[in-house]
């Protein structure tokens, strides 16, 4: 059978191919497991209305994510280049949609998701150090700044930090699961929240909230140009990573609902995890558990800081964005996208100052799912376009899995449109603004 030959639209690869399977799966798990599972328990429960439906929301969100991961893994194995979703969409649909996919990630999704995770993390850090709410934004800015500085070094440094923090985050996760399951006295199923805000949104919004917790899996695709054998490693890292997180999230949710009654979770909201840590393990144990969760979130931030600048770099290499020569700069020794990393950090700072992290998280999921949907449909297009080509990886149970991914994506988009139409219009507007920018940038470089 003939080998699959992609259109020559990928950026020239100057980055180091030094990441193996251990680094790849650590980045997937480390990037996914961060603030969502620890800070979304209250909002998921409020929207779902009962503990049973809350658990189902986490499972349903995981299944949607897994089907999406299996679908995109087929595309990623065929296009193992730096840029991820940006490269996939461009190869399948052409320059304009590809550009918008990249623009969305570097202007809206990337900085917003970093700001959201940092915002949630700063809540726990303020509690940990006994500081007031006025310290939340400064703590978030300092942490993002320091992790950004670390990622100015070569990619092995960020990858090593991902491995360490992924191993470190297993401690608080195991503690919550074991303590909740074996020492909890509540019934994890069947508890009902009696006082729910009218705007809580129902099961659809609950699933949307869980998807923020699962989000981040596709970011490993941005490092396709830095993996040793991306055709094999990329699908494995995505599939094993998402599956592991789905199991972990379900167990954590059951553990929390076994230990705390739903009325307490409803009342505490974002502070549920900090309260559980202290209640279960005392002041000292609670501090240690909180420290573990903070380290977990730092690992998530690092994974995002490691991957998003690669999209900026890929777009700059193509001269798709203003100041491309500046943003495509790589450090001479480490071959890291230095100015692209600084660019993402600065935009994240702006997001932190002007947006609430909970609101940001939902809008991030909506925005990226608009382009996930294009990728899900893209599997059908590629199979038709390359009918007799040999694929490095094929989505199992095709076409059922991609159809489930598409149905889940429609579910996400419709839920958020009904839940927050104003926010949806704002974020879509920011994405569309990219079109005139692409036009003027291309005219500028043609003149040059």
From TrEMBL:
The protein's name in its UniProt record: Serine/threonine exchanger SteT
A GO cellular-component term linked to this record: membrane
What is the topology of this protein in the membrane according to its UniProt annotation?
A: Multi-pass membrane protein
Taxonomic classification, please?
Bacteria, Bacillati, Bacillota, Bacilli, Lactobacillales
Where in or outside the cell?
Membrane
The gene it comes from is steT
Question: GO: which molecular function terms?
Answer: L-amino acid transmembrane transporter activity
Q: Which InterPro entries match?
A: AA/rel_permease1, AminoAcid_Transporter
Q: Which domain of life is it from?
A: Bacteria
